[in-house]
Design goal:
Blueprint (H helix, E strand, L loop, with lengths): L11 H13 L9 H6 L3 H5 L4 H14 L5 H7 L3 H10 L1
Length: 91
């Protein structure tokens, strides 16, 4: 499999999406498994039916990124609505 990059090396948006996803992966993670969050019927478990902690991390990070204070960063990440949708899908 060596040498196969699945297009990652030639696509800057995909490259940044990978890095961004790694950075936000455990944002606001409560430190317990998803099964425990579901068992305790936490707010996140009520909203997200699977991958509860991970989906919460993505949602929180996305909300922060969409804030006015990150407008300049967003301008560097994407230029069109299609780029924005693709970035969101990649994350």
């Amino acid at each position: 499999m060596a040498g196969h990059s699945y297009g990652i090396t030639s696509d800057p948006l995909t490259q940044f999406s990978v890095v961004f996803s790694a950075i936000i992966h455990d944002l606001d993670h409560p430190g317990v498994p998803n099964a425990q969050l579901v068992k305790e019927n936490t707010r996140s478990a009520q909203i997200f039916k699977k991958s509860v902690a991970e989906q919460n991390s993505v949602e929180l990070a996305w909300s922060m990124l969409m804030g006015k204070e990150y407008e300049a960063l967003r301008a560097c990440i994407y230029h069109t609505e299609d780029d924005l949708r693709r970035f969101r899908q990649l994350v």
